[in-house]
Amino acid sequence: MFWSGTCLKEIATDSLVWATIIIYVGIRIFANSIDYVPESVQMLSKTNIGILGGFLSFFLVLFVNQTNGRFLEMYGFSKACSGRIQDVAGLAKTQLPSEVGEKLVRHFNAAHIAGYVGLNAIGMGSPYSKTFFFDHYNAESALLTPGELKVLGHHDMDNSGLCMKELVTWCQMDVAQARKDGHIDSYQEKYMHDKILAFRAAMDGMYDYTDQPPHFFYIHFLVLLSALYLPLFAIDTAYAGGWGAEKSLGLDLLQGIIVFLQCIFVVGLRSLGTKMIDPYGDDLEDLSVINYVEGTLEICRTIMGAKQAAKGASGGTTTTGLL
């Protein structure tokens, strides 16, 4: 649909928007059907709905600002995970034997994908499952051997982040074993461990934010305030549109547009904030997890398959290849 990824769908399907517009249109139809000014017009002229609108605007903008901050933080965590994997892939390529380095990078990418699958266990869940997400990339990139999968079989990847934790520990064990085998020294080992632990910290940050969304009380407060304010705003605007000899079709249309714009502002901001609470869902506005995973795998293949021209070869250019 043309409205995919826009606020139009939320506004067009929100019953509060339609109820507000119907209230305004109903009052204006009544106003144009009579030639006198009802007593209620004088009474309503003494009300000040603008105060309530000011409070609602403040809380809506604050809500969107908070959820946008959460969204950007979680985006940063996702990109940090990808970055730390690339760091370790570069170190593994240049400092470890090919077989040892490839094993480390395989385990690290498996931990990355398992981490996103584990998000199903908390918050609102995620669309990334073991069967259709982890197993797909594992078969495509040969990340874990059948024996390694059997060792991890006791984990319920779809309902726990513990598989990711164990795979991260495997990466640390790979680095520790490389140091014991004399492939790297203690300083290089510590540097790799720091990168691996930074990855785990970023993944933990994603889990922490997902596990603690904004308070339901706050969201319910905004929804209730919106449900009270918009109908009152429609009534106030409709009664201010003119009665008796002061009626004007042009003014009615202009006031109707103002009511509709207010609905867009209130419902749009509320929906925007709600959408950004969970960036690991299947909405068009959510983070591109598949792109992060596939991009990281592709970069790792490039790093691990990088080759330089032989020393003394003509041209001396550097070439890269994929495993």
How would you sum up this structure, described in words?
This protein has 12 helices and 2 strands, in the order H-H-H-H-H-H-H-H-H-H-H-H-E-E. Helix 2 packs antiparallel against helix 11, helix 5 runs antiparallel to helix 8 (162-180) and helix 5 (98-117) runs antiparallel to helix 12. The protein has helices spanning 8-12, 15-33, 39-44, 50-95, 98-117, 130-141, 146-151, 162-180, 186-211, 216-239, 249-275, 289-304; strands spanning 306-308, 318-320. With 323 residues, the protein is mainly alpha-helical.
Our measurement of the CA-to-CA distance between the termini, rounded to an integer number of angstroms, reads 40 Å
Overall average pLDDT? 89
- Tally the beta strands: 2
Strand content bin: under 5%
The largest β sheet comes out as:
2 strands, antiparallel
User: Which structural class should the secondary elements be placed in?
Assistant: mainly alpha
Discrete helix count = 12
Order of helices and strands: HHHHHHHHHHHHEE
Low-confidence stretches: 317-322
Strand order of the largest sheet: 1-2
What is the radius of gyration?
A: 29 Å
Shape: elongated
**Helix content, binned percent:** 55-70%
List keywords for this structure.
323 residues; 12 helices; two-stranded antiparallel ribbon; mainly alpha; single chain
Summarize the structure.
This protein is mostly helical. It has helices at residues 8-12, 15-33, 39-44, 50-95, 98-117, 130-141, 146-151, 162-180, 186-211, 216-239, 249-275, 289-304, and strands at 306-308, 318-320.
